[in-house]
Design brief:
The protein has one domain. The chain is built from 16 helices and no strands. With about 400 residues, it is mainly alpha-helical.
Length: about 400
């Protein structure tokens, strides 16, 4: 009996720490790390007290298989790296510490009420940072506003959270008491999206929302009509604000330095892949290899540390093995979540697809898989959704 009480108490500590992390997730990396660092100790204590169910910390079925294959591919690349120690340490950070939210939620959060409270804490953090972004945009004239965070991190948050909010509201599965605050939060997020000015997020949010809502909505004609109206609304906003319209037009401008520099980075990344086609230059070795010999003579920004693209970065560091493992991982999680949605109509499953696709699309031109704040939130969101579905299955 005392053992059960001890486990329950540890679970309660984990819940409080996850709430704290959620409150800091969008506004303070230092604050988030305080809660996550403490959560490491709590998770280890939980496994010391009771460890026969450690597999519960991982997702189920093919999602687990694809995740382990991705991890295995990265470890394999690390073992052939020029700095094995650094590669393995970075692997531990990326797929251990940064994924702690997913592991802790799946292992220690056993009630939907607690999952909802953690999600509310994330929403509060998102709202606070959105307000800061809007303030910077309106009163400081900053159209690349970041609030309390970093410019590209905010783009990552928006790419995952806005489609998720829209799906929750349209699904009808959100508790009545949360609907008005969620609508307000959605409005704040849309305004923050404009003032943040992350072009990858500008593309990711509408594309992910359109694809997922297309699956969600039964009345396709109404869905298409609503999508057209939203396009007209935002098209009018962009047309009436020259800064926004010029920023949008710059997406395809290859003469713009940021775009040209990305092309140069991707060229260098491809050269790394050409020289090391199977396993790449080694996980976490892009910076040293790029600055040590692969940087192009015409490159203007010579201190860059990543390839500004998840795909190209993985191709350079982990070669064909890592690249194919990543594609398998993404494809499996999206297809499995859509399959679960089609069977159960549980909106949490469709949100898994939205969160993954948001990361993928924004990550086409930004290495957001290397962004600590974005990835910690990414894994927490996935953990909340997966555990919601797991609890629902156990209650049947």
């Amino acid at each position: 009996m005392s053992l059960n009480l001890s486990v329950e108490r540890v679970h309660q500590w984990a819940f409080y720490l996850l709430c704290g992390f959620g409150l800091c997730s969008n506004i303070s990396i230092a604050g988030a790390n305080i809660f996550l660092g403490t959560l490491v100790a709590v998770l280890l204590l939980r496994l010391w007290i009771k460890h026969d169910d450690w597999q519960d910390a991982l997702p189920d079925g093919w999602m687990r298989v694809s995740l382990l294959i991705l991890m295995g591919a990265i470890i394999l690349s690390s073992l052939f790296s020029s700095d094995i120690s650094k590669s393995l340490r970075t692997f531990g950070d990326y797929y251990g510490y940064r994924m702690l939210g997913l592991y802790a939620v799946l292992l220690m959060i056993r009630e939907k009420r607690q999952l909802a409270i953690i999600a509310v804490c994330v929403a509060i953090s998102f709202a606070v940072n959105d307000l800061a972004v809007i303030y910077q945009g309106i009163f400081q004239g900053n159209f690349r506003a970041s609030g309390f965070s970093i410019y590209m991190s905010v783009g990552g948050f928006l790419s995952m959270l806005l489609p998720s909010l829209i799906l929750l509201l349209l699904s009808g599965q959100m508790d009545e008491k949360y609907r008005i605050p969620a609508r307000i939060l959605l409005l704040l997020g849309c305004i923050a999206l404009l003032y943040n000015g992350t072009r990858g997020a500008w593309l990711a949010v509408p594309i992910v929302t359109f694809l997922c809502c297309g699956l969600l909505m039964k009345q396709k004609k109404r869905f298409v009509a609503a999508a057209v109206l939203v396009c007209i609304l935002f098209g009018g906003i962009f047309a009436s604000v020259p800064i926004l319209s010029s920023r949008l037009e710059s997406i395809g401008d290859m003469n713009l330095q940021s775009n040209a520099e990305r092309i140069r980075l991707w060229t260098s990344a491809y050269h790394m892949f050409e020289d090391h086609p199977a396993l790449g230059v080694g996980f976490a070795q892009f910076k040293s290899e790029y600055q040590g010999g692969y940087i192009l003579p015409e490159a203007k920004e010579r201190e860059l540390t990543h390839a500004h693209s998840n795909v190209m970065h993985m191709l350079a560091e982990c070669g064909a093995v890592g690249f194919l493992a990543l594609l398998f991982f993404w494809g499996t999680w999206i297809l499995q979540s859509v399959r679960i949605w089609s069977t159960t109509h549980e909106i949490a499953a469709l949100i898994v697809a939205a969160v993954v696709m948001g990361l993928i699309l924004q990550g086409l031109t930004e290495y957001n898989m290397g962004n600590s704040a974005v990835m910690k939130l990414h894994w927490l969101l996935l953990g909340l959704c997966l555990q919601w579905g797991r609890i629902g299955q156990k209650s049947l």
